[in-house]
């Protein structure tokens, strides 16, 4: 009796293989939650939201470059102390740097460079605060906290669960639409139309409208909202 040939397990597709096959994951605008449990993960979501509100108000009220950049440095140190990967900060910092460069250029031409540095510190401080929140808090936890915050509106006849659902759809839509824009840009480049605004924008708009219609039909079919 002959022995059956040994079966070979199929290797799992790696990220490199996915890139070689042309499959790319859509960008996560708010960053993916770091699953490693740290002290920052264990801080209640409500306290995190309150801290962000205080940081934003402080940056806007004082309008001092030293204060705002100091807040940014402290937030970076807090993130590193929670063992959050530094690479998770780099891409959002790059996006913020583009905005800051534009602001600095405008301030250099029409205002003062000091005012531009104040705005830059405000932007980076707020971005870093939002990063610490999104990297250590799941969407579900954020929505639960948001539902608690808006719960007093129930006395006015407003359903907090509907507001939380709206916020959830908004968060998911932002990430989805950013992915559609990236896909339209890659498709335009593949056809040699990277300089055509129409080739990059129109497909993204059409697919965005379809996404909104599909979402509306799904909600209506389930009778979630009137």
From TrEMBL:
It is a multi-pass membrane protein. Pfam families: CbiQ (PF02361). Residues 9-21 have a biased composition (Basic residues). The keyword Transmembrane helix applies. The keyword Transmembrane helix applies. Keywords: Membrane, Transmembrane, Transmembrane helix. The chain crosses the membrane at residues 45-63, 69-86, 93-110, 116-135. It comes from the Bacteria. Residues 1-21 are annotated as: Disordered. It is found in: Membrane. One of its GO terms (cellular component) is plasma membrane. InterPro entries: ABC/ECF_trnsptr_transmembrane. This is Cobalt permease-like transporter. It comes from Brevibacterium casei S18.
């Amino acid at each position: 009796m002959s022995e059956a040939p040994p079966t070979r397990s199929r290797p799992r597709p790696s990220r490199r293989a996915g890139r070689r096959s042309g499959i790319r994951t859509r960008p996560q605008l708010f960053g993916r939650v770091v699953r490693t449990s740290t002290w920052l993960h264990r801080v209640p979501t409500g306290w995190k939201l309150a801290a962000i509100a205080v940081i934003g108000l402080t940056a806007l009220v004082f309008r001092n470059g030293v204060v705002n950049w100091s807040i940014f440095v402290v937030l970076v140190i807090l993130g590193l102390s929670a063992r959050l990967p530094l690479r998770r900060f780099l891409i959002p910092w790059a996006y913020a740097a583009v905005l800051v460069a534009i602001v600095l250029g405008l301030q250099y031409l029409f205002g003062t460079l000091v005012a531009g540095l104040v705005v830059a510190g405000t932007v980076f401080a707020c971005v870093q605060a939002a990063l610490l929140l999104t990297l250590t808090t799941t969407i579900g936890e954020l929505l639960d906290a948001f539902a608690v915050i808006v719960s007093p509106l129930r006395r006015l006849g407003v359903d907090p669960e509907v507001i939380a659902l709206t916020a959830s759809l908004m968060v998911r839509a932002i990430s989805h639409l950013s992915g559609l824009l990236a896909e339209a840009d890659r498709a335009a480049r593949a056809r040699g139309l990277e300089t055509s605004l129409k080739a990059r924008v129109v497909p993204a708009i059409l697919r965005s409208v379809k996404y909104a219609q599909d979402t509306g039909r799904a909600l209506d079919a389930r009778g979630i909202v009137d």
